[in-house]
Amino acid sequence: SLLAVRDINHNYIVVERRSQMSNHHLYKAKxxxxxxxxxxxxxxxxxxxxxGKDGCMYxxxxxxxxxxxxxxGTELKFFSPCYEVDVSTVCKSTGKKYxxxxxxxxxxxxxxxxxxxxxxxxxxxxxxxxxxDRAYMDSVGxxxxxxxxxxxxxxxxxxxxLKRGNIFDxxxxxxxxxxxxxxxxxxxxxxxVSEYHGGVYQS
Length: 203
Known about the structure:
Blueprint: E1 2-6, E2 12-16, E3 27-30, E4 37-45, E5 57-61, E6 83-84, E7 91-97, E8 103-105, E9 108-112, E10 118-130, E11 135-145, E12 152-153, E13 161-166, H1 178-195, E14 200-202
Parallel strand pairs: 4-14
Antiparallel strand pairs: 1-2, 3-4, 3-7, 4-5, 5-6, 7-8, 9-10, 9-13, 10-11, 11-12
């Protein structure tokens, strides 16, 4: 259920209880304070000091519980814990899992167990072939990127793929650098969090 609550600056934001959220609504990102990964609900604040390139500040809330809200359930007392994150590392959950049951996120580097090819799990606009129209058309969603091959839908990862790393910690796996991948992912990530309102909480 959605709750309308107020933060400490009396700005209204809409939140959804973590216990009632599906994996599609989860995000992960690196904490600004120590660079460690954290997973949970994404909070975007449009007030306060400038944060990311869009002028917002981003936080990951690992869990939203009754203790985070007042007895009336309408005023926000605190989100604890709540971590400020680097928006260029925000990765959206696919809601799917790999063959070993590890959760699959945007930015993962995974290996096809069919042919051994390494691919990057991306989110955004890509060209998908439509057999009805016999033409490539723009599609929005998760897709697999691999050098020398056309972008393709990720399909059922649980039947053919295993995670080998991610573009931020293991860019060498796909012949890139961390800086290059963060620049490439930054615009895509901002599009991801602004386009998807189900798990993004706005003031």
